[in-house]
Amino acid sequence: MANHRIDRVGMEVKREVNDILKKKVRDPRVEGITITEVQMLGDLSAAKVYYTVMSSLASDNQKAQIGLEKAKGTIKRELGKTLTLYKIPDLIFEKDESIAYGNKIDQLLRDLDKK
What is the separation, in whole angstroms, between the first and last Cα of the chain? Predict the structure, then answer.
């Protein structure tokens, strides 16, 4: 039963962080960032937040990571206003590589079809 709560809290954190990034954070480095998944620890003390950036440039990815780290305090404060948790989880931002990996596999399959 506890696993359902962890999943629900993760989904709520994902929805709220997406909303906060769009409406509250004014840093241009975080524009175009989409939160794809949130994985919560079992005790809800930390959340690993996976994100994607529309640009594929390495410099844009680095700027997005720096922007998210700078906005972490604002995001946690806004989460504290909306979530009814005893302790707001620590946020760990990581770039989601699954979309790029899926695109690479798709390209390999298309290349096989051409041969």
Answer: 50
Among 23-27, 47-51, 98-102, 104-108, top mean pLDDT goes to 47-51
Percent of the chain residues past pLDDT 70, beyond the cut: 98
Report d(CA 89, CA 60) in Å as an integer: 27
pTM attached to this predicted model = 0.83
Contact 32/16 with Cβ under 8 angstroms? Answer: no
Sheet containing strand 46-53, strands side by side: 33-40, 46-53, 90-95
| DSSP result, 36-80 | EEEEE-TTSSEEEEEEEES---HHHHHHHHHHHHHHHHHHHHHHH
Q: With beta carbons less than 8 A apart as the criterion, state whether 78 and 16 touch.
A: yes
Among 71, 35, 28, residue whose Cα is nearest residue 53: 35
* Radius of gyration in angstroms for the set of CA atoms belonging to the chain, rounded to a whole number: 16
